[in-house]
Write a structure and sequence with these properties.
398 residues; Molybdopterin biosynthesis moea protein, domain 2; 4 domains; 6-stranded mixed β-sheet
């Protein structure tokens, strides 16, 4: 399939505070060594390892206490043979230190310290640059800034980074039969749920959803709202209207909206066959099926990797290896994407298929991931190990 240029998200400079979940727009190099000096890993005494090599309870080694390290202060002068310096956890070690003995392996008497155990003392030093060296590449562009990443940036002396601003994605919901929560249902009407679900999914991916009034099953109204959305937003996501019914206006209107127009209309996948992928200029336009299960499955499978190109980011979601608790038995001729619920068991992770129709939202509400059944496969027996691709979520706890 041809490559189409997708508009890139704008870049902005921001301090590290409140950047959890944002996406880096730059490579970040460490400006400082971490740590920038040799530090003690325990409370105890800085020593020269050779001095305490033979220390034991029966034959302790006696050392002269020549100073004490204060936190946040430079270490005392160079350590000499036969001496020790009191040091707290994280304290700077004097030059010449080759080991640290734990305070519980010593006994202090007047200006001397008795060392009862010198084993492993060299392993208690956190050496300069042992975590990060100045100039090291910390993160590539496209990295999602999670709490550990932000902590590392701060530790290395980074105070601000270039991040992608959140592109605005228009969300258009079509259908005369749809009624929002809180409004009395009339005959033949159903609750509108796709808008809430799609907006939440876009937020989890790092986008700003822009909702519009529900689009009536009227071609002129639909054309007007679509034109407005294309003018105001960086991309458009449409729920419904992409099938082949007489009131399914999405394919025709998107084709008329601008070049290159519709690129894909329909895929050999269930659920989600009538999905539509298009470009108007450099703005992606994605037509999702109206059935909620189909809509979210196609958002994850096709819309997500397209939209992430705005951040110069490739979808790198890692599948989870899980054992099926029940067989998956499907008809031939299509690829199937089966929602599964993940649970822990004695022999690892299990995946329980959640079956139903593409209009039944409970399938998604209780699912954690998708198992792909390739075209040509009709049966995956129970207890087979499968790859389960997790749904996008801002929080991993259930």
């Amino acid at each position: 399939m041809a490559e189409f240029p997708i508009r890139k998200a704008k870049v902005e400079r921001a301090a590290l505070n409140h950047l959890e979940g944002r996406i880096l727009a730059q490579a970040v190099l460490a400006p400082e060594d971490v740590p920038s000096f040799d530090r003690s890993m325990v409370d105890g005494f800085a020593i020269i390892a050779e001095d305490v090599r033979t220390a034991s309870r029966e034959t302790p080694v006696r050392l002269r206490v020549s100073g004490e390290v204060s936190m946040g202060k430079a270490a005392p002068a160079r350590l000499e043979r036969g001496s020790a310096v009191i040091v707290p956890t994280g304290g700077a070690l004097p030059k010449g230190t080759t080991g640290v003995v734990k305070i519980e392996d010593t006994e202090t008497k007047d200006a001397e310290v008795l060392v009862f155990d010198g084993l492993d003392c060299a392993d208690r030093i956190n050496r300069t640059r042992s975590d990060v060296a100045a100039g090291d590449l910390l993160f590539e562009p496209g990295r999602v800034l999670d709490p550990p990443a932000l902590g590392l940036l701060a530790a290395a002396g980074v105070d601000a980074v270039d991040i992608y601003a959140s592109p605005r994605i228009a969300v258009l919901i079509t259908g005369d039969e749809l009624v929002p929560p809180g409004v009395q249902l009339g005959p033949g009407q159903i609750r509108e749920s796709n808008g809430v679900m799609i907006c939440a999914a876009l937020c989890a991916l790092g986008f700003t959803p822009q909702g519009y009034e529900r689009v009536a099953d009227d071609r002129d109204v639909f054309a007007r709202v679509l034109s407005k959305a294309l003018d105001e937003c960086d991309g458009v996501m449409i729920s419904g209207g992409s099938s082949v019914g007489t009131r399914d206006y999405t394919p025709g209107l998107v084709s008329e909206a601008g070049e290159p127009g519709v690129v894909v209309h329909g895929v050999r996948v269930r659920p989600g066959r009538p999905v539509l992928l298009a470009m108007v200029g450099d703005r992606p336009v994605i037509g999702l099926p109206g059935n909620p299960v189909s809509a979210l499955v196609m958002l994850e499978a096709l819309a997500k990797p397209i939209l992430l190109r705005m951040f110069n980011k490739v979808d790198s979601t890692l599948p989870l290896r899980a054992r099926l608790t029940a067989p998956i038995d499907v008809e031939p001729g299509l690829e199937y994407r089966i929602p599964v619920q993940l649970n822990r068991s004695g022999d690892g992770l299990t995946a329980t298929p959640i079956l139903g129709t593409s209009s039944q939202l409970h399938i998604l509400a209780f699912a954690d991931a998708i198992v792909v059944v390739p075209e040509g496969t009709t049966l995956i027996p129970a207890r087979t190990w499968v790859d389960a691709v997790p749904f996008t979520r801002t929080r991993t706890l259930r």
